[in-house]
Amino acid sequence: MTEGQLLVVSGPSGSGKGTVVAFLKKMPGYAFSVSVTTREPRAGERDGVDYYYITKERFNEMRDAGELLEYTTFCNTSYGTPVSEVERAKTLDRALVFDIETEGAANIRKRYPDAILVMLIPPTYAELEHRLRSRKTESDEKIAGRLAKAKLEVPLFRHYDYVVINETGKQEEAAKILDAIVRARICQKQGGPKTEEEKELLSFVAGFETARHPDTAKTFFQK
Length: 223
Known about the structure:
Layout: E1 6-10, H1 17-25, E2 30-32, E3 36-37, E4 52-53, H2 56-64, E5 68-74, E6 77-82, H3 84-90, E7 95-99, H4 102-111, E8 116-121, H5 125-135, H6 140-153, E9 162-165, H7 171-189, H8 196-206, H9 216-222
Parallel strand pairs: 1-7, 1-8, 2-7, 3-4, 8-9
Antiparallel strand pairs: 3-6, 5-6
């Protein structure tokens, strides 16, 4: 059972969050927070499924009225998480997954201290740059902006509960790790491990605790 748990996944653009979350969506027991955005829908995207597409005026109204749990603006496009999404998840008896920026993650931690925060990063900075350039969808200027932002975001992993390296080609494995992290937290809430399987689960998840990887940022940028 995963109901009532908030899972926050952050990581720089190019970390593969979208693909990992897509795999997580195939697993039972999860609901996904739908953000609002001021950008236009891309091909194949659906309102209310991928995002709630709203005007800048409506976004500002929601922000000023305190209707956004967190929000950010990047490249003249605003994104935010409606407070109503958390309430919606409570009615679904599932864990609610947030795919959001580091600033938003910090805001959620303040409001919901029991939320699980996971930083998802590629194995190296060089791999991150390779992924961004391989998309061939953005200008060099925009890529440079994303790389510069990554240099600020990755060191913030220290404020997260877990850090997971999203190895290239192993996105499904990363999703399974996120699922294990959620199941381990639920196990702890229910009084701790009662079977050998649950003990193994908690032991496995402990290996991803941020405290065990103090040199993550240093290693990421040196390789």
